[in-house]
Amino acid sequence: MLDQKIKDLISGGKNFACISTVDGKNIPHSTIVWIGYEGDFLVYNTEVHRKQFKNIKNNPNISVAIWDSANPYRYAEVVGNVSKTETGEVARKHIDELSNHYTGANYGMEIASERVKVYVNVVRQRIQG
């Protein structure tokens, strides 16, 4: 179950996350993303051509660090696995929702490939500060 303090950190500001995945050679790959949650899942959005998406297709294990932009000493660490992905209209709507939270407008950047909504099942979590 996703801790309410982590939900508050996500919804309480424009607080970015760093997701870390591992490629087929066990080399870590980290990416800064916009983060949200649905129920007890962390959710983020990407595109199918990106390295971190290719990584989670081969190895669903993931770590997520979320920090408070107003107080970087307040942060959350989540370890989990990608339990589900969705493409199509669901993913397109989701990137607009995230963009509105972080920028105040729908997503305006070019989409190079297909958008993907990624659901992270929480296995272990910790909040600091």
Note down, in words, how this protein is organized:
The chain is about 25% helix and about 45% strand. The chain is α+β, with helices and mostly antiparallel strands and about 130 residues long. The protein has one domain: Pnp Oxidase, Chain A, CATH 2.30.110.10. The protein has a seven-stranded antiparallel beta sheet with strand order 2-1-5-6-7-4-3. Strand 5 (about 60-70) and strand 6 (about 70-85) form a beta hairpin. The radius of gyration is 14 Å and the shape is globular.
SSE blueprint and pairings:
Elements: H1 4-11, E1 17-22, E2 28-33, E3 36-38, E4 41-47, H2 51-58, E5 61-68, E6 71-86, H3 88-103, E7 115-128
Antiparallel strand pairs: 1-2, 1-5, 3-4, 4-7, 5-6, 6-7
Provide a quick synopsis of the model:
With 129 residues, the protein is of the alpha+beta class. Helices cover 25% and strands 47% of the residues.
Structural class assignment = alpha+beta
Distance between the termini: 20 Å
Beta-strand share of residues:
over 45%
Extract low-pLDDT stretches.
none
Q: List the secondary-structure elements in sequence, H or E.
A: HEEEEHEEHE
Q: Biggest sheet: strands, sense, closure?
A: 7 strands, antiparallel
Please tally the helical runs, counting DSSP H or I stretches of 4 or more residues: 3
CATH C-level category: Mainly Beta
The CATH superfamily turns out to be: Electron Transport, Fmn-binding Protein, Chain A
What is the number of independent domains?
A: 1
What is the number of beta strands?
7
- Report the average pLDDT across residues: 97
Query: Helicity range of the residues?
Result: 10-25%
CATH A-level architecture: Roll
Mind telling me the C-alpha Rg?
A: 14 Å
Q: Spatial order of the strands in the main sheet?
A: 2-1-5-6-7-4-3
Fold-level CATH name: Pnp Oxidase, Chain A
What is the approximate shape?
Answer: globular
